[in-house]
Amino acid sequence: MRRAGIDTYRQPVLYLHRDCPVCRAEGFAALTRVRIGSGGRDTVAVLNVVTGDWLGAHEAALSEAAWQALRPEPGALAEFAHADPAESCSLLRAKVYGARLGEQDFAAVLRDVLAARLSDIELAAFVTACAGDRMDLDECIALTRAMVAVGDRLDWGAGPVLDKHCVGGLPGNRTTPIIVSIVAALGYRIPKTSSRAITSPAGTADVMATMTAVDLNLGELRRVVEREGGCLASGGRIRLSPADDMFIQVERPLDIDSGGQMVASILSKKAAAGSTHVLIDIPVGATAKIRTPAAADAIARRLTLVGEAMGLRVGIRLSDGRQPVGWGIGPALEARDVLAVLRCAPDAPRDLRERALDIAGAVLELLPESRPGRGREAATVALDSGAALEKFMAICEAQGGFREPGKARFARAFVSPTTGRVACINNRLLARVAKLAGAPNDPTAGVVCTLREGDPIDTGAPLFVVHAEAEGELAYALNYAAGHADILAIRSGPE
């Protein structure tokens, strides 16, 4: 066996030459699922057939995922056989054809997902079959429970454990680090774990990774929370609803974020994290993830009902999703906005500050002893007094130390072709520019946009500034912007 040195993420891949005797005798063809055994370990991998001369007929090359699964000794031999079909394949096909699945059905699918018995193609079929309105409320509850059951679950003991989540779709809406710092500064527990970005230019974990360590294991996370009352960590190493992480890797290239699966994803991780009170922010806007008030009401109802079934008190906040929040879009750029708000800097984005205070207040008012309006008052005092900043820095230190976010090597403005006022901002297209510039893979890449609807703009003035680590990505993002005049639509004419 050879180490191919090819990253296929979680999908184990086997490479055999087309003239390999095993390939010919067993009738292996491209994309066949093959069971590999070596040194007492085994795994199932997808076969890729090599036609060039870089692999010999008696050699087997393994992708990084397959190599890590087998960890063979130098010069080790391997045995190959056809992999048995996953037990859940029939359930997957049933769902594709519209059947309703129960908790045990979903559990069977998730077990095969975690054991790598389903290929990415089969995972994509399952994700697609559950997208849209293809999962009813009972199925959503069943999937949520099954996702919790196959992972770890935290227990923080008696008393409230607070959490906050945003369904996403709004560039730059990085309120979470501010809210966690405020709530923890006021003496409440808020162990916050977040995923990396799925379809956006940055997630909370991506933003925090520009300032401190986020890939904490279970013991490290518990120590941070016990010391500081809160954390701002990635959920990748903790196995809280681990099957969801597998779904995310399929959803990302498909650019799918299904409503039913989104509810199961959010609430399974909240339940597994030991949360008791959860505030969920749902931005609503024509170019946000949730586009209409009716769609927002539908997902809010499902979140509330599934939350009740999971023993969670869920609060819902519908917010303005017409335009970005904060100036930066991209991990380091959003981190700079977060720090500006926490530091009460005079040039901090006011919309980010106000939204963070509103949501922090709503989180605090989930507590039974809280009275309306008092939550925001307490949050404002914690922020303005510097207590939130102090707590944020303490959390960063507990997670491994604080560092200032970096800056991109290149930055160039995209200018207005006319004079007028900003009529509307397309969140999706603006986020796309940030992604083409390299975000979130390049943490310093993204877009800075300080304009809002109704703001005046002159010909040749910057509509936004693109930041990138490579000139090619900078040019790519700017070329895309040039072909999409409606990213920031300008109503022409004098002020």
Automatic annotation (TrEMBL):
Top EC category: transferase
Domain of life: Bacteria
GO CC aspect terms: cytosol
GO molecular function, one term: thymidine phosphorylase activity
Any one GO biological process: pyrimidine nucleobase metabolic process
Alphabetized SMART domains for the sequence: PYNP_C
Keyword line: Glycosyltransferase, Transferase
EC number(s) from the headed UniProt entry: 2.4.2.4
Domain (Pyrimidine nucleoside phosphorylase C-terminal): residue spans on this chain: 421-488
Pfam families to which the protein is assigned, alphabetical: Glycos_trans_3N, Glycos_transf_3
Catalytic activity, as annotated: thymidine + phosphate = 2-deoxy-alpha-D-ribose 1-phosphate + thymine
Family, similarity comment: Belongs to the thymidine/pyrimidine-nucleoside phosphorylase family. Type 2 subfamily.
Name recorded for this polypeptide: Putative thymidine phosphorylase
Organism whose genome encodes this protein: Lysobacter firmicutimachus
